[in-house]
C-alpha cells in the first residue's frame, strides 16, 4: 500500500513539473509565430533569442540626456529634417499616410567635432515618445561565430516591437565599410544582415528610423549608403554660430565679455569646430582658478557671499596685483574657503587661442 501511495505522489509531482515547461513553451511558440515566421522554430532557439535580446536591452537609452534642440547651434537644416522624420510622424500620424512616408534612414556626416553625436542626443531627449537605441560595434560584434548577425537581427526585432523606435549607430563606418575580398567573413555577414534588416523582404520597418553618423561617408558600402535615404552634411560652424557657441559654453559663469568681444572671438576662430570651441572655453574657464593659485596679493571686496548669493558681504578676498593700493600680501592657503571672490573670465583669457592648438 505504501509503495502505491508513494507512486501516486510521484506521479502527481511529475505531472506538476511537466506542466510548467509545456506552458512556457506554448507561450513562446505563439509569440514567436507573431514575431517571425521565417525564424528557426526549434525550441532551444528561444532562450537564445531571449539572451540576445536581454543583452541588447542595454542599448536602449532611457535616461534623459539633457540636450535640447536649442542647445545645438547652427544646424537648423539638420534639425528640421530630424523633426520631419521623428517628431512630426509621432505628433500627426494622419499626415503620414498613403504615399507620404517618413524618412527611414538618415545619415549625418561631416568633419569631427561638429555635433553629430550631440544632435543624436538631442533627438533622444526631444523624441521622448520613441524608444531610442544607441548601438555601437561593441554591442553588435560578438566573439561567437554567427552571433553578431543575430544581434543585429534581434536589435531590429526589438525595435519593431516598440511603437516607434530610433536606432542610432554612431561611427557607422566601423560596421558598414565597403565590402571587399580581403575582409573577414564575419564582418561581411554583419553588413549583409544590416542590408536585409534595413530594407529586405518580409521586414516591415514602418516604425523604425535608422540614424547613422560618420565622418568618413565615402568608406561606407554603397548599398548601405543607399538605405540612408536622407544624407545631411553637418558643416563646420559659421561665424555667427561660433559666437553663439562661445556664449553658450560660458554659460552663467561670471565674465566681462561684450558682444563685440564675442564677435572678435568668432572672427579669429574660422575653421574651428564646435568641439574645439568648447575646449577653448573650458581652458578659459580654468584661468581664474590658476589666477587664485598663483596670486601673491589679495584685496578686500564687497560682493555676494559664496554660501548664500542673496547676502552681500564686504570681507571677500580676490587676487590683485602687488601694486594695488589695497593689496594685502598673502597666498590662497590663507584665504578662508567661503571668503573668496571669484575673479571673472576676461577677454585676456582668450587672446592666446592659437597657443592651445
Ligand atoms: N553645433 C553645436 N552646438 C553646440 N555644441 C556643439 C556643436 N558642435 C559641437 N559641439 C560641442 O562639441 C562636442 C563634441 O561634439 P560631438 O561629439 O557631437 O562631435 P561629432 O560630430 O560626433 O564628432 P565625431 O565625428 O568625432 O564623433 C559636443 O559635446 C558639444 O559640446
Ligand atoms: Mg560622434
UniProtKB/TrEMBL annotation:
<dbReference type="InterPro" id="IPR003960">
    <property type="entry name" value="ATPase_AAA_CS"/>
</dbReference>
<dbReference type="GO" id="GO:0005524">
    <property type="term" value="F:ATP binding"/>
</dbReference>
<dbReference type="GO" id="GO:0016197">
    <property type="term" value="P:endosomal transport"/>
</dbReference>
<dbReference type="InterPro" id="IPR003959">
    <property type="entry name" value="ATPase_AAA_core"/>
</dbReference>
<dbReference type="Pfam" id="PF17862">
    <property type="entry name" value="AAA_lid_3"/>
</dbReference>
<feature type="compositionally biased region" description="Basic and acidic residues">
    <location>
        <begin position="29"/>
        <end position="38"/>
    </location>
</feature>
<dbReference type="InterPro" id="IPR027417">
    <property type="entry name" value="P-loop_NTPase"/>
</dbReference>
<keyword id="KW-0067">ATP-binding</keyword>
<dbReference type="GO" id="GO:0016887">
    <property type="term" value="F:ATP hydrolysis activity"/>
</dbReference>
<protein>
    <recommendedName>
        <fullName>AAA+ ATPase domain-containing protein</fullName>
    </recommendedName>
</protein>
<dbReference type="InterPro" id="IPR003593">
    <property type="entry name" value="AAA+_ATPase"/>
</dbReference>
<feature type="region of interest" description="Disordered">
    <location>
        <begin position="15"/>
        <end position="52"/>
    </location>
</feature>
<dbReference type="Pfam" id="PF09336">
    <property type="entry name" value="Vps4_C"/>
</dbReference>
<comment type="similarity">
    <text>Belongs to the AAA ATPase family.</text>
</comment>
<dbReference type="GO" id="GO:0007033">
    <property type="term" value="P:vacuole organization"/>
</dbReference>
<keyword id="KW-0547">Nucleotide-binding</keyword>
<keyword id="KW-0472">Membrane</keyword>
<dbReference type="Pfam" id="PF00004">
    <property type="entry name" value="AAA"/>
</dbReference>
<keyword id="KW-0967">Endosome</keyword>
<dbReference type="InterPro" id="IPR050304">
    <property type="entry name" value="MT-severing_AAA_ATPase"/>
</dbReference>
<feature type="domain" description="AAA+ ATPase">
    <location>
        <begin position="102"/>
        <end position="238"/>
    </location>
</feature>
<dbReference type="InterPro" id="IPR015415">
    <property type="entry name" value="Spast_Vps4_C"/>
</dbReference>
<dbReference type="InterPro" id="IPR041569">
    <property type="entry name" value="AAA_lid_3"/>
</dbReference>
<dbReference type="GO" id="GO:0010008">
    <property type="term" value="C:endosome membrane"/>
</dbReference>
Amino acid at each position: 500500500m505504501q509503495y502505491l501511495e508513494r507512486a501516486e505522489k510521484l506521479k502527481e509531482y511529475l505531472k506538476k513539473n511537466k506542466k510548467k515547461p509545456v506552458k512556457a513553451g506554448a507561450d513562446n511558440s505563439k509569440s514567436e509565430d507573431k514575431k517571425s515566421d521565417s525564424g528557426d522554430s526549434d525550441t532551444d532557439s528561444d532562450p537564445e533569442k531571449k539572451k540576445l535580446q536581454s543583452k541588447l536591452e542595454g542599448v536602449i537609452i532611457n535616461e534623459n540626456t539633457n540636450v535640447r534642440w536649442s542647445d545645438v547651434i547652427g544646424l537648423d537644416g539638420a534639425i528640421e529634417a530630424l523633426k520631419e522624420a521623428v517628431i512630426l510622424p509621432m505628433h500627426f500620424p494622419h499626415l503620414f499616410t498613403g504615399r507620404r512616408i517618413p524618412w527611414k534612414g538618415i545619415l549625418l556626416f561631416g568633419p569631427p567635432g561638429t555635433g553629430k553625436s550631440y544632435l543624436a542626443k538631442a533627438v533622444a531627449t526631444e523624441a521622448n515618445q520613441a524608444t531610442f537605441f544607441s548601438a555601437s560595434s561593441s554591442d553588435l560584434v560578438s566573439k561567437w561565430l554567427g552571433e553578431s548577425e543575430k544581434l543585429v537581427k534581434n536589435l531590429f526585432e526589438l525595435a519593431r516591437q516598440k511603437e516607434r523606435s530610433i536606432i542610432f549607430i554612431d561611427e557607422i563606418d566601423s560596421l558598414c565599410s565597403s565590402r571587399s575580398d580581403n575582409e573577414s567573413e564575419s564582418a561581411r555577414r554583419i553588413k549583409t544582415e544590416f542590408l536585409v534588416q534595413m530594407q529586405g523582404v518580409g521586414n516591415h520597418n514602418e516604425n523604425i528610423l535608422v540614424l547613422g553618423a560618420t565622418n568618413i561617408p565615402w568608406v561606407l558600402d554603397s548599398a548601405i549608403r543607399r538605405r540612408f535615404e536622407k544624407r545631411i552634411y553637418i558643416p563646420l560652424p559659421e561665424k555667427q554660430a561660433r559666437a553663439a557657441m562661445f556664449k553658450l559654453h560660458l554659460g552663467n559663469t561670471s565674465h566681462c565679455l561684450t558682444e563685440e568681444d564675442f564677435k572678435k572671438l568668432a572672427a579669429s576662430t574660422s575653421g574651428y569646430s564646435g568641439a574645439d570651441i568648447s575646449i577653448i572655453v573650458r581652458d578659459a574657464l580654468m584661468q581664474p582658478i590658476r589666477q587664485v593659485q598663483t596670486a601673491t596679493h589679495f584685496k578686500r571686496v564687497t560682493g555676494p557671499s559664496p554660501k548664500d548669493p542673496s547676502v552681500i558681504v564686504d570681507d571677500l578676498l580676490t587676487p590683485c596685483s602687488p601694486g594695488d593700493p589695497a593689496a594685502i600680501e598673502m597666498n590662497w592657503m590663507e584665504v578662508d574657503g567661503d571668503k573668496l571672490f571669484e575673479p571673472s573670465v576676461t577677454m585676456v583669457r582668450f587672446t592666446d587661442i592659437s597657443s592651445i592648438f
